Amino acid sequence: MPSDPHEPKSKGKKVADPETLRTTGLFAGLALQLIGLVVVIVQLRRVNASIRVSAQASLYQQSSSVRSALIEYPSLRRYFYEGRNIDPESEDYHRVRTIAEEFLNYLEHLVIQRGSLRDDEFSAWNRFVYRTISSSPVMREILDENPDLYSRDLVRACEEGRPRAD
What we know:
By secondary structure, this protein is mainly α. It has 6 helices and no strands. Helix 3 packs antiparallel against helix 4, helix 3 packs across helix 5 and helix 4 crosses helix 6.
């Protein structure tokens, strides 16, 4: 019997049925989605690492700025690290207060970056915040005078950083 001229010639090839094609298409789509998901996860990890590096760089830049002021005026270190009060009549009074405000802004930035730091990094910074503020009457005074200008996180970090009695 002659073949129908309108039927495609298969030349010995078996044509897949529509259900097999549909199933194959679904698996191929699923495989592409999984590959896409893996790519997104890898990119997110890279972005997370980049954010951590950026946060660290920003913190160290601010720290450098504060330390530069103390390098330029080394006699003022005692008001930040040695527990010394400054007399309001001192010619350095306004300079010390300005450096203290910059220092507090830096410390506040530290506690705000909590989400960008590992727990062990943040614990170390928390102790640094506490020790720095506890050894500087002028910084404590500024915090007490202007509690609404600083985040509660800064105050909480100072409290959390206190050494625990065993």
